[in-house]
Every structure is written in C-alpha cells, then in structure tokens.
Amino acid sequence: MTDDLVLRNEADGILELVLNRPDKLNALTRSMFDAIAQAVADLRERPDLKVMLIRGKGRYFCAGVDLTDPQGGPGFGESPTGARTWMRRDLMGGMHSLYEEMERIEKPIVIAHHATCVGGGLEMSLSCDFRLASQSAAYWFPEMQLGMLPLSNGVGRLTRIIGAHWARWMVLANEKVSAERALTMGLVHDVYPDDVFEERVRAFCIKLAGFPTEVMAAGKLALEMVEDLPADQARQLERLTFSSLAFTPDQKAMSKKMVDKLSGQKS
C-alpha cells in the first residue's frame, strides 16, 4: 500500500491504482514507483487480472516527479557527468524500466486523467495503452522552464504518438494543452464530461476486461511490431496472428455470439 500513497483495488478483472498524495499534487516518489511496479508485476502474473487502471485523487492528476524525494530525487550535484550517472543508475533502473515494462506487458493499461497531468506523470501516461481525459484535464511538459528536457523517454514517446509537429508545440514552445486540444492532437483517446468521467472510464475498462486475454496479447504484440516493419512483413505478421487465433474455442464462441446478434437485428 506504500503508506496509502498508492491505493489499490481489484474488481471485475480490473486492477485499479489511485495516486493518493493530493496534498503534494500526486508528485511521484520512489516508493510510489515501487508500488506501481509491483502492481504491474501482479498484472503480468495473475490470470484473473485483465486490465490495469491508473487514476489520481485531488486537484491534480499528477504534478510530475517529486524532486525533493530523499529516496529518488536528482542527486547529480552540479555537473553534466553527475546528471548522466544519475540517469543511468536511478532512472534506467527505475522509471525507465517501469515504463518499458508497462509498454511490453501483454495486458492493457488505461490511465484516466481527471485533472492536470504534468512532466513525469505525463511521461508515465505515454507508456499506457489508453489515455482517457475529463474535460477538466490539461497537459504540460514544464521542463523547458527548468532549463531541461523530458528525460524518461518522454520526447521519444510523445513524438511517436502525436508526431514531431505537436511535440515541438509541447516541448519546445512549452505550451499547455487542454483536454480537447489533446484529443485533436492524438495525445488522448477520448474526453468525457466531468460528471460522468468515472462511470465512462469504468465502463471502458470492463469492456476491455471482457476480451480474451490471448487475443489482447496478440494484438498488443502485433501493433508494437508493425511500427518498425515494411508493409509486406507487416502483412505476414497479420496473417500469422490471424491464423494462430482462428478457430480457437474463444474465437468460435465470439463469432457465434456476433452472428446470433446480427440475426436477431434482422428479424
């Protein structure tokens, strides 16, 4: 539970985490990262868990990494060499590996922004499969005002998701982005009204949890691989995944259910 800074709940195949440090705007500490990493490991190992949902509590979703955290703050002194050492030792062994595991895991991770998401919180969000926003949400990389740049592969993931055009807007121009603008940019997948936000997020997660685990895993793997494949190899991968899933018990049952539903609509 990490002193209740990360709340955890399990229901309907959904592993829900809630960032619970509202007095510090949910700024992330090393112990909070450890709690999230443990939850990701549980998601991977337990077949009863189908989906992870990450939410926040308070007036911010997350204000980024807590730079005053005695366990994980930047201890790189005054030199660029010290900064690089800190990045290799702490970040690559901590945040970097966590975010990469969140991308690699064969189950979907949903992150739900009810309010402003900044810096390291946004970098973590970019590692998730689905980003959902309330109308009150907003997004910002503040690093330019600190004389720095995002450092947990935020630049790389952001550019891959929204393209260099909008990445320049957020990183170089240092512009804050509303939920609606984030939707048009492709930064988030959907925006819901504040008063039904939690309900809509929950319904989305329940839908994901209802899909067969093997199909979801194959889909995530295929989507990751085709990004770097030529078109002909991507088609071969599609054929391979299709043939491996066709005529399984799950596929037959789902196909029958769909046919029965369509037949009922026609009658």
Give the SSE layout.
Blueprint: E1 6-11, E2 14-19, H1 30-45, E3 51-56, E4 60-62, H2 80-91, H3 95-104, E5 109-113, E6 116-118, H4 120-126, E7 130-134, E8 138-140, H5 154-171, E9 177-178, H6 179-185, E10 190-192, H7 197-209, H8 213-226, H9 231-245, H10 249-266
Parallel strand pairs: 2-3, 3-5, 4-6, 5-7, 6-8, 7-10
Antiparallel strand pairs: 1-2, 8-9
Helix pairs in contact: 1-3, 4-5, 8-9
How would you explain this protein's 3D organization?
With 267 residues, the chain is of the alpha/beta class. The protein folds into 2 domains: 204 residues, Alpha-Beta Complex (2-enoyl-CoA Hydratase, Chain A, domain 1), CATH 3.90.226.10; 54 residues. Helices cover 49% and strands 16% of the residues. The chain has a 6-stranded mixed sheet, with helices on both faces. A hairpin with a 2-residue loop joins strand 1 and strand 2. It is globular, with a radius of gyration of 20 Å.
Short recap of the structure:
By secondary structure, the protein is α/β, with parallel strands linked by helices.
Radius of gyration, CA atoms, in whole angstroms: 20 Å
Percent of residues in β-strands: 15-25%
CATH architecture assignment name of the largest domain: Alpha-Beta Complex
Give a short account of the largest sheet. Answer: 6 strands, mixed
Count of beta strands: 10
CATH level 1 class label of the largest domain: Alpha Beta
Summed over residues and divided by their number, the pLDDT gives a mean of 88
Q: What's the quaternary structure here? A: single chain
Total domain modules: 2
Look at the structure and name the CATH superfamily of the largest domain. 2-enoyl-CoA Hydratase, Chain A, domain 1
Shape: globular
Helix content: 40-55%
Structural class: alpha/beta
Strand arrangement within the widest β-sheet reads: 1-2-3-5-7-10
Distance between the termini: 53 Å
Low-confidence stretches: none
What is the overall number of helices? 10
Instruction: Write the H/E string, N to C.
Output: EEHEEHHEEHEEHEHEHHHH
> CATH topology of the largest domain, anyone?
2-enoyl-CoA Hydratase, Chain A, domain 1
